[in-house]
Amino acid sequence: LVMQGAEMQLLDADQAMNELGLEEHQLRFTSTVVIEYPGEVEQTVDRIYQYVKGKLKDFPVQMSADQSITVADSVLIKVSGDDDEAEKGVLVSWSYQDEDIGSYLLKLLKMGIPST
Amino acid sequence: SSDRKRRSYFWGALDVQEFVDKLNKEGLTDVKVEDSAEGHIVHLPNEDTLIQLEEGSTHIICEGNEGLRVKLKDILLQCLNRL
């Protein structure tokens, strides 16, 4: 509900933010988990990509040329580590508007990824 | 999908001192604040966590401790205006 002078208007939050000239505070999270997955980094990324795609059928899951995975509007997944070491770091980053998906993916990847 | 995303809006700049006071109150007492080019960096060395505070944005960077991340998120949202 927005009051301007003697006028009252019922607006949705999106419109109200615009009318009032308010800028949303951008909130972003980045968490890193360590997983065990033998194989090259590239294979690990591919495996995570397939796994996440299978789990989140209602959201766009994309692989970029730089070996990062994007999910929905703001979620980013990156893998770091050595090809000959099973231990890999998986970075999951998301903005507040994708909190549900981001926190879900972090929990999912924390449990490890199945090898096939 | 816009319904999914638009639960609440948060706006305004974060008051660093208010944020640190709230962290202390929640038992997070090992807190270091540094100035950065764009604002402040709040460092929780015991938790391996950094929080970058800028005028219109905040970035919480932590290890995979979800309990801590959610706690930090909740404290942070208390310091902002909600619509």
Account of the 3D structure:
In chain A, 29% of the residues lie in helices and 33% in strands. Chain A has a five-stranded antiparallel beta sheet, with helices on one face. Chain A contains three helices and seven strands. With 116 residues, chain A is of the alpha+beta class. Chain B is of the alpha+beta class and 83 residues long. The mean pLDDT of chain B is 90. Chain A binds chain B through residues 12-14, 16-17, 22-34, 72-73, 96-100, 103, 106-107, 110, and chain B through 1-2, 4-6, 8-14, 56-66, 69-70, 73, 76-77, 80, 83.
Number of strands of chain B: 6
Number of helices of chain A: 3
User: Runs of chain B with pLDDT <50, length 5+?
Assistant: none
> How can the largest sheet of chain B be summarized?
4 strands, antiparallel
How would you summarize what this structure contains?
The complex is a heterodimer of chains A (116) and B (83). Chain A is an alpha+beta fold and 116 residues long.
Question: Could you give the topology of this structure?
Answer:
The complex is a heterodimer of chains A (about 120) and B (about 80).
Chain A: E1 2-4, E2 7-9, H1 13-19, E3 26-36, H2 41-55, E4 61-63, E5 69-71, E6 75-80, E7 87-95, H3 99-110
Antiparallel strand pairs in A: 1-2, 3-7, 4-5, 5-6, 6-7
Chain B: H1 2-5, E1 10-11, H2 16-25, E2 32-35, E3 39-44, E4 49-54, E5 57-63, H3 66-78, E6 81-82
Antiparallel strand pairs in B: 1-6, 2-3, 3-4, 4-5
What attributes characterize this protein structure?
A: 116 residues, TATA-Binding Protein, five-stranded antiparallel beta sheet, two-stranded antiparallel sheet, elongated, B: 83 residues, alpha+beta, four-stranded antiparallel beta sheet, two-stranded antiparallel ribbon
